[in-house]
Design a protein that fits this description.
alpha+beta; 22 helices; ATPase_P-typ_transduc_dom_A_sf
């Protein structure tokens, strides 16, 4: 029996390894409900896919012409039956074959069986044109569904193609082409103009411009300077440049993106899971009702005609196919994931599209989320009892142990690290700063909470200064502080305005100084803002909001944000500057660090959910009406075809609409 995926209550696929999930998803499209398109068709041209339907359609038109308009004396009896059988075979045999395959795998009540019974039954009561027509339109619907799935995958397939298989490395100044997967950390890649970078690395050339669309959705060139990080998938736009590999092939940012996007389809939204379960219960019930429609009237109707009631039962079966639901709904979610990835937003599962649609509160970090995260030292205020240059060298050496943007600012301000400085017992104290021993003396670099923690006396009021302060203590004495300023991102104001327009409340939580946090919040119009928070304080604040039955999305970028990202209903990570821990924990990743993508992600979630529910209502309404008409003998096979294939096509067209939307 073919493996069927298993999902937990949250909609996460729990039965396969990640590799198996990826292989399953990239090899063929499966709806995990018995509806499994043969995606060998993906190898065929569109004409080849439609050829059997074209043959059946031509033969059916000729037969209908001989029956009604150009009557032929020879077109009767077995010749007429044989003609319709030949018209049926190109589209009917594959479906009948699928029905038997489904039964063999234990899925008896598949839509393939329903259509097969209905059309063969139509032949049994001499309704040959309708039998061929139902199967023909069903086959055409299947082809359109396959094309729609292919289209929905196009954005993600483009992403999958961004990583080149080979790279050119320099060995003793000789260029050599090797497989990207075999490149080692420290190798020098030579990248020509127009080539894609295969691994993450450090730019060795003075400057280079890159197209970063594969990672961010933005085609605007991004100019990098010597020493800056460049990522796999970026396209070199100008002259030849050299890049030193700093990250293994499988650990590159693009590799992680590919895993995230491919694995996203393994996490199903609650609506999807409900429809799958519903279809498995609904279809057998409808089959039983169809049998009842055919047989029960025998005991209650005086002029019972078996053929008439069988015809009604067959119509009932055609209408009952849950195709519109089981195809269009996953397709809607897949389209939402594709539309988001096209815009540089990665959803780790369709279930998070649903959650984003219901978000009532967006809680955000400040540094690197609403501000650039690019700090610059503004002022150094040290006690004259200390040698400022020597202390700055010690601070620079200690901060080199941290990846925080503040450390980068200090390094840029002070310059090269003095290799003669020996640090011992280096410790990063979360939410406070860094501690180490130098020359047998204690060195503390961090915020003023760190000074309080180690009972270091100081003679200034930190709250009186708006800028971020980095306090320094050496040998149990307060040395002084550095002021560091950060700038607000250019689209931060647009973000808050858009969120307000959506009726979403905003809150800013930060470990930074409260005066700085309040200054930024006031400038952006954020009503609730809290500073001087430790990671556990952020967690408690988010817990307070969730306790009020509010849906919370938390947006952060630092490793300190990982706990609160995990706690929130949906965690959003800034993927460009963000730490790997936060990106791993997050449910949604914004690749270009633009906060305006937060509102876009919510909008994509809302539009996806809207389309999914439009399809559910359309399918149920039309099917209910035609089922009642069919049972009452007021609907023919043609109405049944519309109720099944027609509604499915309308639902599919509606589902793919999301990929054309501008967000």
């Amino acid at each position: 029996m073919e493996h069927q995926h298993i999902y937990d209550k949250q909609g996460k696929q729990i039965c396969c390894s990640l590799e198996e999930k990826i292989n399953k998803k990239t090899e063929h499209h499966s709806d995990d409900d018995g509806h499994d398109h043969d995606h060998s068709s993906e190898e065929k041209s569109t004409f080849q896919m439609f050829l059997p339907a074209i043959i059946s359609f031509v033969l059916l038109l000729i037969a209908i012409g001989f029956d009604n308009y150009f009557t032929q004396s020879w077109f009767t009896g077995w010749i007429r039956i044989a003609w319709y059988v030949v018209a049926y075979i190109p589209v009917g045999i594959p479906v009948v074959k699928e029905a038997f395959e489904s039964i063999r795998k234990g899925d008896v009540f598949s839509e393939f069986l329903l259509i097969s019974i209905a059309t063969i039954g139509a032949f049994a009561i001499a309704e040959f044109p309708e039998g061929v027509a139902v199967m023909l339109f069903y086959a055409i619907g299947e082809i359109f569904q396959t094309l729609a799935v292919q289209r929905a995958k196009a954005n993600i397939k483009t992403l999958l193609d961004q990583r080149p298989d080979e790279v050119t490395v320099l060995e003793n100044n000789v260029a050599k082409t090797i497989k990207a997967s075999t490149a080692k950390i420290g190798d020098i890649i030579q990248l020509k103009a127009g080539e894609k970078l295969g691994l993450d690395g450090e730019l060795l050339s003075d400057t280079a411009s890159f197209n970063t669309a594969a990672l961010t959705g933005e085609s605007k060139p991004d100019t990098k300077a010597k020493g800056e990080t460049v990522l796999a998938g970026m396209i070199n736009l100008n002259s030849v440049c050299q890049v030193k590999v700093t990250v293994a092939y499988t650990d590159s940012k693009l590799s992680k993106i590919l895993v995230m996007v491919q694995d996203a389809t393994a996490k199903k939204a609650p609506t999807e899971l409900f429809i799958r379960k519903f279809a498995k219960i609904y279809t057998p019930i409808v089959v039983a009702l169809a049998v009842a429609i055919c047989v029960l009237p025998m005991f209650f109707v005086e002029n019972y005609q078996f053929n008439d009631w069988l015809y009604r039962a067959l119509i009932f079966l055609v209408i009952s196919c849950p195709c519109a639901l089981v195809i269009s709904i996953p397709l809607g979610y897949f389209g939402g994931i594709g539309a988001a990835s096209k815009n540089g937003i990665l959803f780790k599962g369709s279930n998070f599209l649903d959650v984003m649609a219901t978000v009532q509160n967006v809680v955000m970090d400040k540094t690197g989320t609403m501000t650039e995260g690019v700090f610059k030292v503004q002022e150094v205020v040290f006690n004259s009892d200390f040698n400022a240059a020597d202390i700055l060298q010690l601070v620079n050496a200690l901060e080199s142990q941290s990846t925080h943007p503040v450390a980068t600012a200090i390094h840029q301000f002070v310059g090269k690290i003095d290799s003669a400085i020996v640090l011992k017992d280096v410790e990063e104290i979360s939410g406070h700063g860094l501690k180490a021993n130098v020359n047998g003396k204690e060195l503390l670099v961090g915020n003023f909470k760190l000074m309080d923690k180690y009972s270091i006396a100081y003679d200034i009021d930190p709250t009186s200064i708006v800028y971020t302060l980095i306090a320094v203590a050496y040998d149990k004495k307060f040395v002084g502080y550095l002021t560091i300023a950060d700038s607000i991102k250019e689209d931060a104001q647009i973000t808050i305005d858009k969120l307000k327009a959506l009726g979403i409340k905003t809150t800013m939580l930060s470990g930074d100084k409260n005066t700085v946090v309040q200054f930024v919040a006031q400038k952006l119009g954020i009503a609730n803002a809290f500073g001087d928070l430790l990671p556990e304080d952020k967690v408690n604040k988010v817990k307070e909001i969730i306790a009020k039955n509010k849906t919370v999305a938390f947006v952060g970028d630092g490793v300190n944000d990982a706990p609160v990202v995990a706690l929130s209903n949906v965690g959003i990570a800034m993927g460009g500057l963000g730490s790997d821990a936060t990106i791993e924990t997050a449910d949604v990743v914004i690749q270009d660090d633009k906060p305006s993508k937060i509102a876009m992600a919510i909008n994509i979630g809302k539009q996806t959910k809207k389309i999914v529910w439009q399809n559910i209502i359309l399918a149920f309404t039309v099917k209910a009406i035609v089922l009642i008409l069919g049972a009452g003998g007021l609907a023919t096979m043609w109405e049944a075809v519309f109720a099944d294939v027609g509604v499915a096509l309308l639902a599919i067209l509606n589902a793919v609409r999301i990929q054309r939307m501008k967000f």
